[in-house]
Amino acid sequence: MTKKKITIALAGNPNSGKTTVFNNLTGARQHVGNWPGVTVEKKEGSCTFKGYTINVVDLPGVYSLTAYSLDEVIARDYVVDEKPDVVVDVVDASNLERNLYLAVQLLEMEANLVIALNMMDVAESREYQIDVKELSRLLGTPVVPMVAAWGKGTPELLDTVIAVAGGYQKVSGINLQYDHDVETEIVKLEKLISDSSLAEGYSPRWLAVKLLEEDEEIIGKIRQT
Ligand SMILES: Nc1nc2c(ncn2[C@@H]2O[C@H](COP(=O)(O)OP(=O)(O)OP(=O)(O)O)[C@@H](O)[C@H]2O)c(=O)[nH]1
Ligand SMILES: [Mg+2]
To answer: Are residues 24 and 107 located together in one domain of the fold?
Structure first.
C-alpha cells in the first residue's frame, strides 16, 4: 500500500518565494513555532490532495548548506536527521545560477529533491529561455515551473511530490566528480564510512566530502557516535 502521509520540507534561497509556496500549499492550516533550542521561527502546515495528507515544513532561507550560520545548520540538520519524504527546493528562475548552488548541495546529500522553478514570470519578462526538460535531465531531478505569486504550478508541484514520495518518479541526482586526488580520498573515506555505523544516518559520499572540507559541525557529530 502506498503511504498516504507525506512530509515535505521547503528549502530555498532567501526571497525565492518559499513562504508564498508554503501559503499556497497550506492555506490557513499552519502553525508557527520555534526550532528546538533556538528562536528561529518554524512554520509547519498541511494540506490534503488526492487522498494524501501532506505536511509542509518551511525551512529558513539559505544560500548553501555549509553550516556557517544557524539558519544553515537548521536547514541541513532537518534534511539529514528528519529525512522528509521530499525536499522541495524553491528556486528563483530569474537568478538560476546562484540558486542552483543550493540545489546541487541538496542533491549531494541524496535528498529526494523536487525543484519548484519559481518566478517564471520574472524570468520570462527578462526574456530568459529556460529549457525545463534539459535542466531536469542534467540535475537528475523533477523540475516544476511556477509563478507562486499567482498560484500557478501548485497542483503540478503536488502531483510531482506525490510521484516522488511514492517512488513513481525517480530522483537520480548528479554525481559531481572532483579532481583525481580528491576523488581518491573520497573513495577511501566512503569505504570506511560504509563499513561503520555512520552509514545508517548519512550518505557516505556526502559525509566523506564534508570531512575533507573539515566541516566542524559534522566532525563534532561523528565524535559523538
Ligand atoms: N513576480 C513574482 N513574485 C513572486 C513570486 N513568488 C513570490 N513572489 C514575491 O517575492 C517576494 C518574496 O517572496 P516570499 O515568499 O516572501 O519569499 P521567501 O523565500 O519566503 O523569502 P524569505 O523568507 O525572506 O527568505 C514576495 O514579494 C512575493 O510576493 C513569483 O512567482 N513571481
Ligand atoms: Mg519566507
So the answer is: yes
Task: Say which ligand is closest to the CA of 32.
Answer: 2
- 21 CA closest ligand 1 atom index: 15
Query: If you ran DSSP here, which 8-state letter would residue 196 be given?
Result: S
Same domain, 17 and 114: yes
Indicate whether 85 and 35 sit together in one domain: yes
What residues line ligand 1, using a CB cutoff of 6 Å?
12, 14-20, 61, 118-119, 121-122, 147-149
Task: Kindly report, residue by residue over 67-110, the tens digit of the pLDDT.
Answer: 778 999 999 999 988 999 999 999 999 999 999 999 999 998 88
In this structure, which residue's CA is closest to atom 14 in ligand 1?
A: 17
How many independent structural domains does the chain possess? 2
Residue 175 lies in a domain: no
Tell whether 93 and 149 lie within a shared domain: yes
pLDDT of residue 36: 79
Torsion angle of the four alpha carbons 47, 51, 52, 54, in this order, in degrees rounded to the nearest 10: 0
pLDDT tens-digit readout, 196-221: 887 777 788 989 998 998 988 888 88
Which whole number is the average pLDDT over 45-72? 92
Domain that holds residue 121: 5-165
CA distances from residue 89 to 57, 64, 113, 180 in whole angstroms, order as listed: 12, 12, 7, 30
Task: Flag whether 174 is in a domain.
Answer: no
Task: Tell me the CA–centroid distance for residue 123 and ligand 2, in Å.
Answer: 20
Write down the pTM of the prediction: 0.90
CA dist 173 to 2, 105, 122, Å? 23, 11, 27
pLDDT at 164: 97
